[in-house]
TrEMBL record:
GO molecular function: oxidoreductase activity, acting on the CH-OH group of donors, NAD or NADP as acceptor; quinone binding
Keywords associated with the record: Oxidoreductase
Source organism of the structure: Sulfolobus tengchongensis
Alphabetized SUPFAM superfamilies for the sequence: NAD(P)-binding Rossmann-fold domains
Full protein name: SDR family oxidoreductase
InterPro entries: NAD(P)-bd_dom_sf, SDR_fam
Similarity comment: Belongs to the short-chain dehydrogenases/reductases (SDR) family.
GO biological process: fatty acid biosynthetic process
Length: 259
């Protein structure tokens, strides 16, 4: 297959949280290929961050769940670039925890990174986004956030449902500045989040389970989500705001409701 890349984002400054690994990494590389300058906010992946810097990304170590660190990152970006064109709120963690094993600390940490992090980054960087006439925000939610069930994901789903409602409300509030706000809700994507620390056999067992949950009988790759993010961030999506695009291979349990 021949893929043609356009320079859709030449001169654009794109803040990508968690842009060092998995889905965020594919998003960063997609923007790099299309002429943007990604500003990658990352938590700990020093080596990955260094490699992205060599490719032309601007990297800032910043825990998105720490408002002061986010504010400092905003100041650095303001001094360096003076504007932001696109924000991709991708950083996230998944703590699997059945409801009956509720652990407040783990829950609060997940909520702080996934949901508060999205709020902090959006709030702090908003003044820079308002300096351009066609700012864009793309939030990474999850199909869990629209109710797709999986063992132990109740609290994770809550954090992602919060991101979905935030997306819709922000689209409403920020439309007057020409800012579009959309979300992508991925299904099961092969990254450290889903396969990290698993041996070959266990990884294949999980792939098989999740393949069988989709009508397309396949699992997702980070690029499958990055492609949707780049589309939503592009001029081609200029008439789309307040939407959630589910990219999950077509979950059988969501597509078999009888009417
Ligand atoms: P991943 O491979 O585990 O990567 C997570 C990324 O988030 C890393 O770059 C990590 O930075 C960053 N991060 C974590 N905590 C952070 C913090 N406090 N501050 C800044 N950055 C932080 O995960 P992934 O699968 O790519 O997931 C990316 C997003 O997609 C998440 O929001 C996740 O919930 C969502 N999602 C994933 C799936 C899936 O099946 N994989 C499905 C639905 C939704 P470091 O590299 O520095 O640690």
């Amino acid at each position: 297959m021949v893929v043609v890349y356009y320079m859709r984002f030449k001169g654009r400054i794109v803040v990508i949280t968690g842009g060092t690994r998995g889905i965020g990494r594919a998003i960063t590389e997609g923007f790099l290929r299309e002429g943007a300058t990604p500003v990658v906010l990352y938590a700990s992946a020093e080596n990955e961050a260094k490699k992205l810097k060599e490719k032309g990304a601007y990297i800032i170590k910043c825990d998105v769940g720490n408002r002061e660190e986010v504010r400092k990152a905003k100041e650095i970006v303001d001094k360096e670039f003076g504007k932001v064109d696109i924000i991709v709120n991708n950083a996230g963690i998944m703590v699997l925890m059945p409801f009956e094993e509720f652990d407040e600390q783990k829950y609060e940490r997940m909520l702080r990174i996934n949901l508060n992090g999205t709020i902090y980054v959006t709030y702090e960087f908003l003044p820079l986004l308002k300096r351009v006439k066609d700012g864009v925000i793309v939030n990474i939610a999850s199909n869990a956030g629209i109710g797709t069930a999986a063992e132990g994901t109740t609290f994770y789903a809550i954090s992602k449902a919060g991101i979905i409602i935030l997306t819709r409300r922000l689209a409403f509030e920020l439309g007057k500045y020409g800012i579009r706000v959309n979300a992508v809700a991925p299904g099961w994507i092969e990254t450290d989040m889903t396969l990290g620390g698993k041996d070959q056999e266990e990884a294949e067992r999980l792939r098989e389970i999740f393949r069988n949950k989709t009508v397309l009988r396949t699992t997702g790759k980070p690029e499958d989500i990055a492609n949707v993010v780049l589309f939503l961030a592009s001029e081609e999506a200029r008439y789309i705001t307040g939407q959630v695009i589910v990219a999950d291979g077509g979950r059988i349990d969501n597509l078999t409701h009888s009417v």
